[in-house]
Design brief:
- 76% of the residues lie in helices and 4% in strands.
- The chain has 14 helices and two strands.
- A two-stranded antiparallel ribbon has the order 1-2.
- Strand 1 and strand 2 form a beta hairpin.
- The longest helix has 47 residues.
């Protein structure tokens, strides 16, 4: 018995000597994660199953189960429609940002004079147009596109599509400036991805007589699939938390209404969070399948 305890102590001492420094370096992150991420998230989930009232004695909790979720989905006529409309817009905007960033990065990866300056120009919006700065720019009309009214783009789109699809397309077109401003990080990641492709591969396929178009689909695109997936996840998280997000505004407004409160707003936030997780899971799944790892081809 004593021998087994001593062995256990010796094993724990060995583990501590081997990994102890690493655990100490991780300690600030672990404390921060538990305090500022895990606890607020858990408290929010608990709130979503309660009717939360603010009284002179503090927060009062009354367990209601899934009632908040039921009211949100079947009695609220605005929130589900707002979610559907917003996700329609994002499903259009995310591919546009990825395609735009990919081809800009492809151009910036070529050799031409002032290449470093041009790379800086495309990354500058990430530094300047964030948070309150971005909101102020849009408040002053810097994010509007004059040709939308000049050529009656909204009427043309409504003529060919109609309904909620037309509204989503017009909304995306009106935010074309955001596509440019929100592509800086993605361009940077794609540029880093291009540096991982060996030049000898292009030389070999060129010797075999392949055209630039064929070398793109045979070498460049397959090698960039993991970076496309990484950028897709980054873009999803970035767009679903950006300052003009109408869903987050509705959630915040419901926090302070007497008829809803923290519990109802938490249920709205958790539904939104769940849908965002589904989008991230879909992006990762598509990346996994496209890279061939899921089918065991590698």
């Amino acid at each position: 018995m004593n021998s087994s305890v001593e062995k256990r102590k010796a094993y724990l001492l060995f583990r501590w000597k081997t990994y102890g420094v690493g655990y100490l370096f991780m300690l600030p992150w672990i404390v921060g994660f538990l305090s500022f991420v895990l606890f607020p998230v858990g408290w929010s989930l608990y709130n979503s199953f309660n009717k939360v009232s603010i009284t002179s004695d503090g927060f009062q909790y009354h367990w209601v189960g899934f009632e908040n979720y039921y009211r949100m989905l079947f009695e609220n006529n605005e929130y589900p429609i707002l979610l559907i409309t917003y996700f329609q817009e994002m499903l259009l905007m995310i591919p546009l940002i990825l395609i735009f960033a990919f081809f800009v990065a492809l151009l910036l990866n070529q050799k031409f004079p002032a290449r470093g300056f041009m790379r800086t120009v495309f990354f500058l919006p990430v530094i300047f147009a964030t948070g309150q700065v971005l909101m102020e720019l849009f408040r002053q009309g810097s994010g509007e596109l004059p040709f939308m009214e000049q050529y009656r783009v909204e009427d043309v789109v409504d003529l060919y599509f109609g309904g909620s699809v037309a509204e989503a397309i017009v909304s995306v077109l009106s935010k074309a400036v955001i596509i440019l401003w929100y592509s800086g990080v993605q361009i940077l990641i794609f540029l880093a991805g291009f540096q991982t492709i060996s030049r000898t591969l292009y030389e070999a396929i060129r010797v075999d007589g392949a055209s630039p178009w064929e070398s793109f689909w045979k070498i460049t695109y397959p090698a960039m699939i993991p970076f496309i997936g990484l950028n897709a996840v980054y873009t999803i998280v970035d767009l679903f938390t950006y300052p003009f997000n109408p869903v987050l505004k509705v959630v915040q407004d419901n926090m302070f209404k007497a008829t809803t409160g923290y519990g109802y707003a938490s249920a709205m936030a958790w539904l939104y969070f769940g849908l965002v997780l589904v989008c991230i899971g879909a992006a990762l799944g598509l990346t996994y399948r496209a890279s061939g790892m899921g089918g065991g081809r590698r």
